[in-house]
Design goal:
- It is a single chain.
- The chain is mainly β and about 375 residues long.
- It is globular.
Length: about 375
């Protein structure tokens, strides 16, 4: 959440971060201990493992320093923070390690494809907002439950980019791993007439009325079975003209697959026999900052048995639609990445090119389903070369 909700001091367990964030009153800072406990809570999603680091140099306790709080409070917060960790250790709920020891421990308890998961809840502002993070060697993704569980950040680690950094290289300061989706840097859900920025979501329509699941707040629940993790969202209700439909989303992540399985299930419909159009889409680009990169060279494709239609990106706002399609994909040579939206059954595939004011691309699959039916799609990431 620190990446999306503002001040990173709100999410650092160095006591100085909490003081800098002004999250204390009358010399007390219960949020610090609640935050430490929230990191401990991540063990529920990672087979009993959780990690927290309190990296502190002594310099900030120097009386000659310039700090955001009185010296006495700085020292007290440090002592209280360490005392809380010590109490956890005494109860057998914490192991303290050097970084070298931790590295050895991590290697001995984790295998290469094992993911890290975090279902994170806002405990500071009272919003109950949830984000879910999933990270493995093939991708990192963030899901926002305030936007119907939409993907708001996606990094294609499958490309395994080798980026030199430092003086004498092309990346003196910025060695961030490129994103395909980043809702803050690229606008996220619909913000102006050009349409949405980068996001992965689903639009549902009936009889000319459309709604995006991005507009529905929900909550998520984590589960694990074998090598598959699942994120099950609470059902949401959409009103499309005179019709009411209840939709539930389930994301599934299988170790080593380099893909996200997306299931959109119609639980109930107020009009018996009604068929609704589900448009599973991904609007994306690439970059590391808020400034647009050159999209020239990207190839968009939509494929059906025996036929493929492609668009070489040239900022001309073109699009292509193919019936009985199996997949829509984009090859981004600049970051050596291929991303695909695929469907279990044949659907209507589409690709859409952007233009200079909105330099994105959109991949999508459309299908009509009714009550008690499910649309299953996959978001896949591969190294392009």
């Amino acid at each position: 959440m620190a990446c999306f909700d503002g001040n990173g001091s709100n999410f650092g367990t160095h006591p100085q971060n909490v003081l800098r964030g002004m999250i204390y009153q009358d010399g007390q800072y219960p949020y610090l201990f609640n935050l430490i406990d929230q990191y401990r809570h991540l063990a529920l999603y990672n087979r009993g493992f959780c990690y927290n680091m309190m990296f502190v140099g002594p310099g900030w306790m120097n009386k000659l320093g310039r700090w955001e709080a009185p010296y006495e409070l700085l020292v007290k917060s440090y002592e209280d923070g360490m005392a809380y960790y010590a109490s956890l250790k005494e109860k057998g709920e914490l192991l303290d390690m050097t970084m070298a020891e931790f590295a050895e421990h991590y290697r001995s308890t984790h295998h290469y494809a094992q993911p890290e998961c975090a279902l994170w809840r806002d405990i500071l502002y009272g919003s109950e907002k949830q984000h879910f993070w999933y990270c493995d060697p093939y991708f990192r993704a963030a899901f926002d439950m305030n936007q119907g569980g939409a993907i708001i950040d996606l990094r294609p680690y499958a490309a395994k980019l080798e980026t030199e950094t430092g003086i004498g290289t092309k990346h003196i300061q910025d060695v961030s791993y490129p994103f395909l989706i980043q809702a803050n840097y690229r606008a996220g859900y619909f913000t102006h007439y050009a349409g949405e920025g980068t996001i992965k979501s689903c639009k549902v329509s009936f009889d000319g009325t459309e709604a995006d699941l991005c507009l529905c707040r929900t909550k998520a629940h984590f589960s694990e079975e074998g090598k598959t993790r699942a994120l099950t969202l609470d059902p949401v209700e959409l009103k499309l003209g005179g019709l009411t439909v209840v939709v539930q989303t389930v994301y599934r992540f299988t170790e080593g697959s380099s893909e996200i399985e997306v299931n959109r299930a119609v639980l109930s419909v107020s009009v018996p026999g009604a068929k609704l159009k589900f448009s599973e889409y991904m609007t994306a680009c690439y970059g590391t900052t808020e400034y647009s990169e050159d999209m020239t060279g990207i190839t968009l494709s939509v494929s059906a048995p025996g036929k493929t239609v492609s668009i070489d990106y040239a900022y001309k706002c073109r699009e292509a639609v193919l019936e009985h399609a199996q997949a829509a994909s984009a090859v981004i040579p600049q970051i050596q990445t291929k991303v695909t939206v695929a469907c279990r059954s044949e659907a209507r595939g589409f690709i859409r090119e952007g233009y200079a004011f909105s330099p994105m691309f959109t991949l999508g699959m459309e299908a009509e389903i009714g009550e008690k039916e499910t649309l299953t799609t996959w978001l896949r990431l591969e190294k392009a070369n």
